[in-house]
Fold:
Amino acid sequence: MIEAPDSAPAPAVAKAPATGSRAALPAALLSAARRIADTHHAEHGTPVTAAQLATRMGVALPVATAALAQL
Structure:
C-alpha cells in the first residue's frame, strides 16, 4: 500500500496592512464630506455624525463612516 506523503505546509498568505485595508474614497466625495462636516460644526457647534453625513450626502452609512474616518 502506498502512503500519502506528509501534507505540504500551507502556503503563506500575505495580509494587507491595517492602514491599507480601508478603501480610498474619491477626492470629490471627501471634499464634499469635509465641506458638510465643517458647515455642520460651524452651525451647531458639534461634529457631524456618520448618520447625518450619510443623509446630507445621499450615500450609504458605511460610505459616510469611511469618509469621516478619512477626514
Remarks:
- The chain has three helices and no strands.
- Confidence is low (pLDDT under 50) at residues 10-19.
- Residues 6 and 19 are 38 Å apart (CA to CA).
